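Lab channel / #folding
Pinned by the channel admin:
"Please post every new chain as: sequence first, then the structure tokens as a reply. Keep commentary short and put observations after the output so the thread stays searchable."

First post following the new format, from NK:
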Amino acid sequence: MSDQPRRPRPAGKPYRRPQKDPVRILAFEALRAVDERDAYANLVLPPLLRKAREKGDFDGRDAALATELVYGTLRRQGTYDAVISTCVDRPLREVDPPVLDVLSLGVHQLLGTRIPTHAAVSASVELARVVLGDGRAKFVNAVLRKVAQDDLDGWIAKVAPPYDEDPEDHLAVVHSHPRWVVSALWDSLGGGRAAIEELLEADNERPEVTLVARPGRSTTDELLREEAAVAGRWSPYAVRLTEGGEPGAIEAVREGRAGVQDEGSQLVALALADAPLEGRDEKWLDGCAGPGGKAALLAALAAERGAFLLASEKQPHRAGLVAKALDGNPGPYQVIAADGTRPPWRPGSFDRVLMDVPCTGLGALRRRPEARWRRRPEDLDGFAPLQRGLLHTALDSVRVGGIVGYATCSPHLAETRAVVADVLKQRPEAELVDARPLLPGVPDLGDGPDVQLWPHRHGTDAMYLALIRRTG
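Reply from TO:
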């Protein structure tokens, strides 16, 4: 310790310790994990919320606010960055990431919620004092007071270029998507301004939690007894939780008899399972099975028909997740860790094959909003050879007369129709099957024979499915 006497505090207001707000601190921690570790919010947030509940810091309303702060900030990051950049005296890349996270949380409270202006600013400044220190809290205070001078519509009018001058850049700022993603989605969707705006708006909505009742293990009637549960729109096994809720608190989910699964993923599995076959129907393959949602549904459907499912996943830790998802399935199955481009099974071994290939994930931006900021156009070049190789493997693996389902959670044409068209040019012994009749009741499926689902039309992830029969 120094022998020098402490300097007296200057006259004025006494020092006040910052007030710790558990909700906003948790939201900040979640954003830092997403930024620093490339984590996904839907994986980071639940354990943080669970820990806060166990400590007694949170109730249901606190958890709902923390969730809204995290997801709302991530979804609107592009718009908020444009606003913040006009209120600071340096490029955003020169603002420390933790400071930018606090600013973004504050801007979301000001422009994206009903929290009163004074409360949004003061709570954000207190958060800055706790996690950044008093000096940088003054910077946060100054920036947020500038932001508070206008509402979201007013700011968009200032920071978004006019639609007539640059439609894609206008939509990118207004709806908080990278420009290249707006362009890619528009190419796949087609249509005019109204259609693409509906899709981009749907990407920014918080999706309902959707459950799947695995056949032979659970029923929709069981799941519909849960609070705020309603039947799914399209899948006979789907149940939606309209007010969110904690799926892990549901007995059937805890026991693995039901699971959390987007209805689009359920429809992909059901279409493959229901596609007509000639001859035997005894051996099914899920060639990219991780993390196991579609494999669990396929295994349950196969069990009802006395069929066997082989679930293959390249990454051993993801193969472990598949094994956990299938544990307790009443019918025969096997889970293996194997490279789908160099399969250990014999050609022509299977009657039905699902190949849900790795992709950019642009179809799941509702559930993983941070993915839009991580992906780059050049990522498509990395996925393209793998996607084509896996589809070739699927066609090699199915018997003559059997069915392959090529699926991907992306509507990007380079990952969907381009892949199928390129492979079929090299495979004259295979032909497309019309998938639309296998999704009864589902509207707006286009001209076929493949199917593209959309968040704004179907309330699902933007899943793509092409069904292919091997003919020789």
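NK: Confidence is low (pLDDT under 50) at residues 1-7.
TO: also worth noting, The first helix runs from residue 22 to 37.
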